[in-house]
């Protein structure tokens, strides 16, 4: 159904409802009455509203009045791969299946508003929440978020896209004042949200904790009213991040609609008794409250709250597990396979060493922030065991211990510094295990405590002595595969030359272990591509090169401006360790021809770019074809190139397909701050088509008039 018509049909009904409500009833709708609930209206058949995180799946039940788990035994769910994993698939149809699956689980758990997806730009390798986010590139985010949101909402659940906006670090997140240019906002930080709103038609948006140009995001008139509700014509509700509200009248006038999560009695919320009092005193017009109620009711009606025909969902069905598996396996990025170690042929193996605590670690919970009570979570060790059965002897060695300064208090989440020295006893054991086997798999990288909400990493170094461990294991057995489980990037300089085979993986969800095993054993041909740049060293990445992270305790200025991620590396000519969009396959692809339907275009046109790709290797595989655009030389201050289109295609050995990648000419515009508008510069643009941002296979020139 056309969403606009749908909203209009409800409008009269909403007006009628609002007329019949007392001020007290209206205000009761606009704030939490529990940590993850807000009041319904029994007389109208509107049940209490249930909110749930989030980016890893439907969160376990939390107590009504504290962050403690509610202690249910019916609140398990599928652990879905994190946002970075979904983005690494570069597969929008998979994003739609993911949205359907997570939406179904939300319904089965009787949830109304899903606090996901989280789509903030990955600005620095250190952000503790990078794992939840999608990418450093706004186009990749936009293309993935739209089908995700649409599919969630098709299940009669509202997506609450977060955290709006410029919430790109955890350090001082509750107060940090971000300064960024208008151009950086428009070109980098906002397009993902804009796509979620204008194309995905998300029903709600979450206001972030931080400030922008002095104002908290939940009382930021520029963001909430002018851009979101004005320019983008957003009709749904703005929900605060949990405890992100700092005022009553200011927030209400700036465009916040619903307040959630404050650490206070529910009546003491800014949008509770004090909202009521503000209207009664005459300091705030009741029509402002009516507008907030209207938006909230639109959300509830849109998801058919209280209606018998509403979808009821399902949990952890075979179909949902398949989605979790498909995302996990398509997300795995083969960074390096220099001695053709991968895939391992099981018929040639009698014994396999599996080394590293992450081989047996789980990731559904831990650290600070939303997790999932996973119905099942297959570890990499279990995945290899599932696939190899008794035919290969598996020998496990822990290799390293997750250990932090100061102390190891598991209740402590913030300010943890990983111990970087290796444990000599564990390393010696790992060496002996690896040396005694035909091949070795080292599983290492991050953990939920290491990459966590509420804190940023201190550096980009591999933690817990993993560098020494992996090098020792590789020396002991050259047939070693390294599997890194990552949130953000790590500094790989100390291991890369020695490492023959390197798989980059994520918080990969319930099926992660099976997916990793299948890639290692060649049952799945890897097709993930990096959704962010892996810098050689931290100082190479833009915010750090410019000392623009994390700012002082009060503010941070995004000095790199639009040069975020690969835009910086490519424009400044800095060699990354692995470029944005990189990912190898067990087969090879040739780009045999790339053509556009015309040579000249005007504003409003769409370039129909077609590319013929051939699988020239011996295995079936999928390739992401990436299109970067280089603006005319005459235009100053454009990044060296920008992603403007991509598609993913599956090919059998020898098979060839011609794919079409549409590129809207308007998307080649850049934001002109002096005029405060988008400008399309005429001239010759180069379309650079390739397998990564630095593996360009073909170029085509087009002229924009
Ligand atoms: C996070 C949000 C989350 C909310 C509720 C906040 O701390 O920033 O992403 O949805 O808590 O759990």
Description:
- With 705 residues, this protein is α/β, with parallel strands linked by helices.
- Helix content is 27%, strand content 21%.
- It is built from 18 helices and 29 strands.
- It has a seven-stranded mixed sheet. The protein has a six-stranded mixed sheet with strand order 11-18-17-16-12-13, sandwiched between helices.
- Helix 13 links the parallel strand 12 (351-355) and strand 13.
- It is globular.
- The two termini are 38 Å apart.
- The model has no long low-confidence stretch (mean pLDDT 96).
- Bound molecules: beta-D-glucopyranose (BGC).
How do the helices and strands line up, and which of them pair or pack?
Blueprint: H1 3-19, H2 23-28, E1 32-34, E2 37-38, E3 49-52, H3 83-88, H4 92-108, E4 113-114, H5 138-154, E5 158-164, E6 177-179, H6 182-189, H7 191-198, E7 204-207, E8 211-212, E9 215-216, H8 221-231, E10 237-240, H9 249-254, H10 273-281, H11 286-302, H12 318-331, E11 333-337, E12 351-355, H13 380-388, E13 393-397, E14 404-405, E15 417-418, H14 424-435, E16 439-445, H15 466-476, E17 480-485, E18 501-505, H16 512-520, H17 542-545, E19 555-557, H18 566-572, E20 589-596, E21 600-601, E22 606-615, E23 621-630, E24 642-651, E25 656-664, E26 670-672, E27 677-679, E28 683-692, E29 695-704
Parallel strand pairs: 3-4, 4-5, 5-7, 6-8, 6-19, 7-10, 12-13, 12-16, 16-17, 17-18, 21-29
Antiparallel strand pairs: 1-2, 2-3, 8-9, 11-18, 14-15, 20-22, 22-25, 23-24, 23-28, 26-27, 28-29
The structure holds beta-D-glucopyranose (BGC).
Beta-D-glucopyranose binds next to loops.
């Amino acid at each position: 159904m056309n969403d606009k018509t749908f909203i209009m049909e409800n409008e009269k009904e909403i007006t009628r409802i609002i007329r019949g409500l007392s001020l007290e009833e209206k205000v009761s709708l606009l704030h939490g009455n529990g940590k993850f609930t807000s009041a319904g209206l029994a007389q109208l058949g509107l049940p209490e509203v249930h909110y749930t995180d989030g980016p890893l799946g439907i969160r376990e039940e939390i107590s009504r009045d504290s962050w403690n788990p509610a202690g249910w035994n019916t609140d398990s769910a599928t652990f879905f791969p994190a946002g970075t994993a979904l983005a690494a698939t570069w597969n929008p149809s998979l994003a739609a299946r993911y949205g359907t699956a997570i939406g179904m689980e939300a319904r089965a758990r009787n949830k109304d508003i899903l606090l996901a997806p989280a789509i903030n730009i990955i600005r620095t390798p250190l952000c503790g929440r990078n794992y939840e986010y999608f990418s450093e590139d706004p186009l990749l985010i936009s293309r993935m978020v739209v089908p995700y949101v649409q599919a969630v909402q098709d299940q009669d659940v509202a997506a609450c896209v977060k955290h709006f906006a410029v919430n790109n670090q955890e350090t001082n997140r509750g107060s940090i004042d971000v300064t960024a240019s208008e151009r950086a906002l428009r070109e980098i930080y906002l397009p993902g949200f804009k796509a979620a709103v204008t194309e995905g038609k998300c029903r709600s948006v979450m206001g972030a904790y931080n400030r922008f140009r002095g104002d908290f995001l939940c009382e930021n008139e520029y963001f909430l009213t002018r851009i979101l509700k004005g320019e983008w014509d957003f009709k749904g509700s703005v929900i605060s991040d949990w405890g992100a509200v700092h005022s009553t009248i200011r927030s209400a006038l700036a465009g916040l609609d619903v307040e959630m999560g404050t650490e206070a009695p529910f009546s003491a919320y800014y949008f509770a008794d004090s909202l009521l009092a503000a209207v009664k005193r005459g300091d705030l017009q009741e029509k402002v409250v009516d507008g907030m109620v209207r938006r909230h009711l639109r959300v509830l009606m849109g998801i058919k709250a209280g209606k018998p025909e509403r979808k009821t969902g399902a949990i952890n069905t075979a179909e949902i597990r398949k989605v979790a598996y498909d995302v996990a396996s398509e997300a795995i990025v083969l960074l390096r396979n220099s001695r053709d170690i991968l895939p391992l042929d099981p018929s040639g193996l009698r014994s396999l060493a599996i080394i590293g605590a992450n081989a047996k670690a789980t990731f559904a919970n831990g650290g600070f922030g939303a997790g999932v009570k996973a119905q099942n979570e297959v570890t990499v060790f279990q995945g290899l065991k599932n696939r190899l059965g008794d035919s290969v002897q598996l020998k496990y060695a822990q290799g390293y211990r997750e250990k932090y300064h100061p102390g190891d208090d598991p209740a402590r989440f913030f300010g943890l510094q990983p111990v970087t020295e290796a444990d000599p006893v564990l390393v010696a054991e790992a060496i002996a295990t690896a040396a005694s086997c035909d091949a070795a798999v080292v599983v290492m990288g991050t953990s939920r405590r290491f990459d966590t909400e509420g804190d940023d990493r201190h550096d980009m170094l591999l933690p817990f002595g993993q560098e020494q461990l992996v090098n020792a294991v590789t020396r002991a057995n050259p047939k070693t595969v390294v599997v890194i489980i990552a949130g953000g990037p790590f500094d790989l300089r100390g291991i890369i030359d020695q490492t023959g085979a390197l798989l980059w993986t994520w918080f990969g969800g319930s099926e992660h272990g099976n997916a990793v095993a299948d890639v290692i054993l060649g049952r799945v041909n890897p097709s993930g591509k990096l959704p962010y740049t892996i810098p050689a060293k931290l100082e190479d990445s833009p915010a750090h090169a410019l000392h623009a992270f994390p700012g002082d305790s009060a503010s941070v200025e995004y000095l790199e401006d639009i040069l975020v991620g690969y835009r910086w590396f490519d424009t400044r000519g800095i060699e990354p360790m692995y470029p944005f969009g990189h990912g190898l396959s067990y087969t090879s692809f040739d780009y045999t021809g790339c053509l556009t339907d015309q040579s000249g275009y005007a504003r409003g046109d769409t370039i129909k770019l077609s590319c013929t790709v051939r699988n020239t290797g011996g295995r079936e595989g999928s390739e992401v074809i990436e299109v970067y655009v280089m603006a005319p030389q005459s235009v100053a201050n454009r990044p060296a190139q920008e992603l403007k289109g991509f598609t993913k295609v599956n090919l059998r050995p020898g098979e060839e397909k011609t794919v079409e990648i549409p590129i809207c000419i308007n998307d080649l515009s850049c934001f002109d701050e002096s005029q405060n508008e988008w400008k399309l510069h005429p001239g010759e643009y180069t379309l650079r088509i390739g397998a990564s941002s630095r593996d360009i296979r073909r170029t085509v020139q087009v002229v924009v008039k």
